[in-house]
Amino acid sequence: MSTILMRVTRIEMLNPLVRRFTLQSAQGSTLPPFDAGAHVRVRTGQPDEWRHYSLIDFSTSVQADPAPLTYTIAVRLDTEGRGGSRFMHGLDEGDEITIEPPRNDFPLAAHEGCAVLVAGGIGVTPLASMAARCLAQSRPVRMIYAGRSQSLMALLPELQTLLGNELRVHTDEEAGEPLNIAALLDECGPSDRLYVCGPQPMLDAVLAAAQARAWPSERVHFELFTAPVPQAGDHAFEVVLSQSGQSYTVPADQSILECLIDQGCDPMFDCKRGECGVCAVSVLEGDIDHRDYVLNASERAAGNVIQICISRAKGQRLVLDL
Ligand code: FES
């Protein structure tokens, strides 16, 4: 993958935790185009440490700018995270960073009905671009933006201006309870589609509610904003690579993918969040604890493919066709 050297030309504090960055090519050249929902991967310090950040575009042009001069991203500081946001929050205007060209795994689909954008926290960034594009194209759109408190919800003033009454804000602080996902789905018309970006519990709740209502899977588009978190009861287990004969112990707090990389293997992967399917590996023995968003119910029940970036072993051992 080619890379682009970028210069940070502007940094704004949107609230105490979120910084918005304006980036230009260090050479001053135009940049590859992107459409709503796209992200760039940013190298965050170490040679192989990359984070993906959605591109924000409030322009109300009908089509994507064919030759943008700047990219805009927003990063929420997570002091408990893996370090990407700390790197980004340590940057100053004038610093240079390396990115990969935009890629869109979360595009707006062509469909009847309303695009219902469901944002959780900083997951609002790709949905903000979608809102602007929908309005530019005269597509029906509304957004539900949930967060803990309004003071920590990035881009809120811009979205209020853009969407007016089509924006509903939910704060746990004011409501005294989390967003009512069931009610949200029940309010949707039969042709409406959901676009969800937020933390894993929100996404899991939306997917469960959609499944309970027998919605076809294409009615819910999503992107997981945060990296998957370990679950209570996660345990260490052995992975055996049948082709090489090697076996390794996967610690309770590490994924199979990370373990294999640490051991010098070169497995295929991309999103590391169980969304893309790139890391799929055949399983020859062992029960899989599926945690991905790729496989359907029958594929899970078959129990012969695992997404090694996120899914684990139910028991003590998995034999992989690697
Ligand atoms: S790397 Fe995308 S599903 Fe595992």
Structural class by helix and strand composition: alpha/beta
- Outline the low-pLDDT stretches: none
Q: Report the sheet-strand fraction.
A: 25-35%
Number of domains: 3
Instruction: Compute the number of strand runs.
Output: 18
Helix content: 10-25%
CATH fold title of the largest domain = Rossmann fold
Strand order of the largest sheet: 9-8-7-10-11
Q: How would you describe the shape?
A: globular
Return the CATH architecture of the largest domain.
3-Layer(aba) Sandwich
Bound compounds = FE2/S2 (inorganic) cluster
State the distance separating the first and last CA atoms: 25 Å
**DSSP helix count?**
8
CATH class of the largest domain: Alpha Beta
Rounded to an integer, what's the Rg over CA atoms? 20 Å
Mean pLDDT across residues: 93
Query: In CATH, what is the homologous superfamily of the largest domain?
Result: Nucleotide-binding domain of ferredoxin-NADP reductase (FNR) module
Order of helices and strands: EEEEEHEEHEHEHHEHEEEHEEHEEE
User: Main beta sheet, described?
Assistant: 5 strands, parallel
